[in-house]
C-alpha cells in the first residue's frame, strides 16, 4: 500500500455551508473546509425571512417591488464611489451605512416592465410606474434596521445596503389593482411545522396577533428545540483546531476573534456578491472561483491566503478580495487596490442580540 496521504475536503454554500459547519463542529476527519454563506443560526434565519413582510404589515404599506428595486439601484449609485472607484460595485457597504440617507431617494421616478416572476417562487409582478414614496423608504429603512423586540432590543441583524429586498416582495391583486402581503413559503411553513409542530402541510398566512416580541419568541423556541440538529453554532471548535485543520469562510458573517484564529480560519466578504453567486444588479463584481484550490494550497503547501482571487465574469479581469478585518479601498483614480484597516467601518458589522438572555454565537 502507498504511504501517500489522502486528503479530505468539504466545499459547500448556503445549506451546504451549514452542513459543512456541522462537520467542522464534530471535528470530522476532513483536512479543510470551504463553508460559503452558511445557513447557520437556522432558527434566526428562517424567521428573519418573515421580518420584511412583518414590517410592511406594521407600517400598513405594501410597496410595488419596482419601488424597492429603485431604492436599491439609487443606493448603489450613491455608494459606488465610497470605495474609491466608480464601477457599479459597492465594495464598502459599511461606508454606505455610515454615509447614505435613504430619504434622498424620495420622489425619484421608477418604471419596470411586467415579469412572470422575480426569482424562483416569487409572484407575478405587473408593469409598474411611479415615484419613490416616503412610505416605501420607511419600509426599506425599517427592514435594514433589522428585527427588534417591543423594547427596542435587537433580535437579529439585517441585510447590507444594496442587497435586494426579495423578502419584501408583494403580491398584486389584478381585480383591485392593489398590492398586499406575500409570505416566504419556506419560512411561513417553518413557523407552523418547525415551531408549532403541526403535522399537516400548512403555513403562516397572517400576522394577526403577532408582535415584535413574537419574532423573538419564535427564534428562541426554534433555537432551543433544534439546537442539536439545525443550528450549527456550537462555539468550541478545538477538536478541529487541534488537529491542524483549516477553514475558509467566504461571504456574509463576522467574528470578533478572527485575529486570534488566523492560523486556521479565514473570512472573506465578497464585494457586490449575492447569495452563493454573482449579483445581477452588480454584474462586474468579482466572484471567487478558485476558493477550493486556495484551500488546498493552504492545507497541503502552507500557502496562507491573505486575499482571494476574484474573477469578473463579464470582463475576464481579476480582483483580489480582502481577508477580514481588512476592507477594500481603491486609490489613484481607482487603479490601485489596497486592503486597509478601518475601525469605524468595522464597528458597523458588530451586533449585540440583546433581546435574548442566552448566548447567541
From TrEMBL:
Hydrolase keyword on record: yes
EC number, UniProt record: 3.1.1.-
Pfam families on file: Tannase
Top enzyme category: hydrolase
Signal peptide start and end residues: none
Molecular functions per Gene Ontology: carboxylic ester hydrolase activity
Presence of keyword Transcription: no
Keyword line: Disulfide bond, Hydrolase, Serine esterase, Signal
Matches recorded under InterPro entries: Tannase/feruloyl_esterase
Family stated for the protein in its record: Belongs to the tannase family.
Protein name: Carboxylic ester hydrolase
Native source organism of the sequence: Penicillium malachiteum
